[in-house]
Amino acid sequence: LDWQLFSVLQPADSMLPLMSTPRITTHYTIHPRDKDPRWEGVEMERFADEADVVIVGGGPAGLAAAIRLKQLANKHEKELRVCVVEKAPQIGAHTLSGACLEPSALTELIPDWKERGAPLNTPVTEDVFSILTEKYRIPVPMMPGLPMQNHGNYIVRMGNLVRWLGEQAEEVGVELYPGYAAAEVLFHEDGSVKGIATNDVGIAKDGSPKDIFERGMELHAKVTLFGEGCHGHLAKQLYKKFNLRENCEPQTYAIGLKELWMIDEKKWRPGRVEHSVGWPLDRNTYGGSFLYHLNEGEPLVALGFVVGLDYTNPYLSPFREFQRWKHHPFVAPTLEGGQRIAYGARALNEGGFQSIPKLTFPGGLLIGCSPGFMNVPKIKGTHTAMKSGMLAAEAIFPKLTAETLDSETAGLHVPEYAENLKNSWVWKELYAVRNIRPSFHNYFGLYGGMIYTGIFYWIFRGKEPWTLKHCGTDANQLKPAKECTPIEYPKPDGKISFDLLSSVALSGTNHEGDQPPHLTLKDDSIPVARNLGIYDGPEQRFCPAGVYEYVPLDTGDGMRLQINAQNCVHCKTCDIKDPSQNINWVVPEGGGGPAYNGM
Amino acid sequence: MSGRVLVGVKRVIDYAVKIRVKPDNTGVVTDGVKHSMNPFCEIAVEEAVKLKEKKLIKEVVAVSCGPQQSQETIRTALAMGADRGIHVDVSGKDYENLGPLQVSKILAALAKQEDAQLILLGKQAIDDDCNQTGQMTAALLDWPQGTFASEVSLEGDKINLVREIDGGLEHIKINTPAVITADLRLNTPRYATLPNIMDSLMNNETELHKPNHRTSLCVGLIPLFETVAPEDMQGGTDRSGAMLRHTVLQSGLGLHTRSLVVFSIGIGKNKTKLGTV
């Protein structure tokens, strides 16, 4: 098919040697439609609608902002149209998190959440931290004051909490539009943000229009909030356009893989929280595991594995590390006799304080994990994400409803949001833990980091006057394959560990097949030349959904990259970790992606 | 002729989701699972909207029987181009007992109430694969039926239909009013775009009906089925195999095979029995 496509379409005007690289990318963000003869005469007008505030992303931050806005509007008896667009087919279907929730922000937003039936059903009763070796476990006492201590927190199924937040939002009058992805940022003539446009539908895999082609819709707003979660694709564009990252460090990330298991009742200890570091990762690869026993009437555990994306060995496969961790003698007994019922993965932020960009620009704001407020040692980001959404709402509201619209630009600029955030507990919290993650970049790796944490955080509460730096972007950390040794992973046994494709099937992910792959490559020739040539194709290993495969060419000599876009679970790891930074994740047709249920 | 078409739309678990059986073995887990409109119902809605665009019919009414969430399915149909929606509210235990027979009775009653000229349904639902509702509705109304339609064209007050059958394609001509069920190749459904969804949310063109003995939609929702887990089967002796061989030889089928493989497949806790004769 690639060859047929290539002979029909015009060769791309890039460095492609003529006719030797099969065309992979057909998306219009790489091959613009105004120069494409197949799009001549196609109606490209878009229907436009006006709202007061448009929020991109129906996750904890976006929904908290929406709810807070409508709460204020209802309290002050003002009319405010708040629209939330979300790419998932239903609110909560793309949400994936451990999770141990600190209910502080939720209580501030909806004080009577318990009476309203918020799904916080599992208070933490036991908190266990271990360092694992291949066969043994070293317990680490969980003293009060250590960041990962979980007293007062709840184990939640974040997807269910987000779904509940969606219901609360609808109750206060927010307009929720799941199944519609924000694909483009719109700008006024003065350069400020005008709103967003949703994705076009009905484009065929080769980039040509189908009979059912329809343009997306434009949603204009006085101010647009971007809450796309970790490494949002629109935020990526905004960083460039408004230079939001010039005074902060690059963001660093980790990938989190998660499964839900229905276990044997005898092994079930509701409220128990287990974390571990160490095996199977070496001391220089950041990461660890979590295992939470939920208490919602059935013996369900949520477990998963996080690997820092600054790892250096291109042969590392986070998925297979996760699968082999489950066989550890401390973990496997819990899972024996159980049944795996769900799987998913998502990237998460690890940059913390040092990586927070400029948060406001004319016409818009960044909220939640998109700019990144995760408290890394606590491994919690939901409470800060929600608080950032609420602070954004509180900063915007008076400006929106003021007698005179006080703004130099057509889109509202709300720098008060960043001010309020700096004065809030979010800032203090992130400042206190700012040095913990970077402290792992030393010869002793994990152990150096733990010693640092013990001294400077537990004793000195993060008050040391210096701020450690990160090592640069995650994409630059990979060493060439010839300098590293391949890792021998054990074969999955089908009872506790599993292969990749059956795991992907459990995520329920699917996309309309006949659409351009949304994993776009800026240059189609780079994967084989660089990623495969120098790094042995790390995307085959770090993608938790098997999207990237290097397969032999039909002609026999050489390989080509095959992108199985339908498998994508929207984790964004490829966009982060691609050593050539050639992969640009854009949003597929809305409604596609995983179908997580209470993940 | 009223020019009104009734289209049935069913809310089912999305086809890409991995189904899980409930721990008590009485059904599948539906709570929180991604649902969407049955793909064959989407094709039916698309066909109805196409007929309206060709000005062959005047109004498209989308009907769904189910709990509160069925309204989302109706809204999708409205966003695709249906004019009105009717939500027949069936929830809880009643919803578990809702099957093709009950739905056909409801559709038949609605068709009379709405003076419908045509009923368009999907050929089957992807959750139960019954393939019965269209046929039963036609029988209850004593209307002609054109099932597994891959081409539909209206000619005056008759309908030319091409049906996909086991032997190939069958061309039939039926009178209106009629029931048509849509097969895969009838059309490619359009997308429900956001402006249309917003419209359908604002305008709320959906009526609510609650079937009970007072309304004309009086439908007996008596449970017809009970779901039980299969019993644990014990491994058998080869007697069944020998019996089969005996029967085959007796019947003079003249099979000159050296062996017959006898197997039985069970689901759930049943063991697979394999024996060779």
UniProtKB/TrEMBL annotation, chain A:
InterPro entries, sorted: 4Fe4S_Fe-S-bd, ETF-QO, ETF-QO/FixC_UQ-bd, ETF-QO/FixX_C, FAD/NAD-bd_sf, FAD/NAD-binding_dom
Xref: SUPFAM superfamilies: 4Fe-4S ferredoxins, FAD-linked reductases, C-terminal domain, FAD/NAD(P)-binding domain
Residue span(s) of domain 4Fe-4S ferredoxin-type: 559-588
Cofactor note: Binds 1 [4Fe-4S] cluster.
Pfam families: ETFQO_UQ-bd (PF21162), Fer4_ETF_QO (PF05187), Pyr_redox_2 (PF07992)
Protein name: Electron transfer flavoprotein-ubiquinone oxidoreductase
Subunit-level organization: Monomer.
Reactions the enzyme catalyzes: a ubiquinone + reduced [electron-transfer flavoprotein] = a ubiquinol + oxidized [electron-transfer flavoprotein] + H(+)
Keyword Flavoprotein: yes
Main EC class the enzyme belongs to: oxidoreductase
UniProt GO MF annotations: 4 iron, 4 sulfur cluster binding; electron-transferring-flavoprotein dehydrogenase activity; metal ion binding
Highest taxon of the lineage: Eukaryota
Cofactor(s) named in the record: [4Fe-4S] cluster; FAD
Function: Accepts electrons from ETF and reduces ubiquinone.
Localization terms from the record: Mitochondrion inner membrane
Organism listed in the record: Oreochromis niloticus
GO CC entries: mitochondrial inner membrane
Keyword terms of this UniProt record: Acetylation, Electron transport, FAD, Flavoprotein, Iron, Iron-sulfur, Membrane, Metal-binding, Mitochondrion, Mitochondrion inner membrane, Oxidoreductase, Phosphoprotein, Transit peptide, Transmembrane, Transmembrane helix, Transport, Ubiquinone
EC number(s) recorded for this UniProt protein: 1.5.5.1
TM stretches of this protein: 440-460
From TrEMBL, chain B:
Domain of life of the native organism: Eukaryota
Cellular component per GO, a single term: mitochondrial matrix
InterPro entries: ETF_a/b_N, ETF_b, ETF_beta_N, Rossmann-like_a/b/a_fold
Subcellular location: Mitochondrion matrix
Transport keyword on record: yes
MF GO annotations: electron transfer activity
Main location: mitochondrion
Coiled-coil region: none
Chain ranges of the Electron transfer flavoprotein alpha/beta-subunit N-terminal domain: 25-207
Biological process per Gene Ontology, one example term: fatty acid beta-oxidation using acyl-CoA dehydrogenase
Keywords associated with the record: Electron transport, Transport
Gene3D superfamilies, per the entry: HUPs (3.40.50.620)
A Pfam family recorded for this sequence: ETF
Keyword Metal-binding belongs to the record: no
Family under the similarity heading: Belongs to the ETF beta-subunit/FixA family.
Subunit structure: Heterodimer composed of ETFA and ETFB. Identified in a complex that contains ETFA, ETFB and ETFRF1. Interacts with ACADM.
Chain's role: Heterodimeric electron transfer flavoprotein that accepts electrons from several mitochondrial dehydrogenases, including acyl-CoA dehydrogenases, glutaryl-CoA and sarcosine dehydrogenase. It transfers the electrons to the main mitochondrial respiratory chain via ETF-ubiquinone oxidoreductase. Required for normal mitochondrial fatty acid oxidation and normal amino acid metabolism. ETFB binds an AMP molecule that probably has a purely structural role.
Protein name in UniProt: Electron transfer flavoprotein subunit beta
Gene transcribed to yield this protein: ETFB
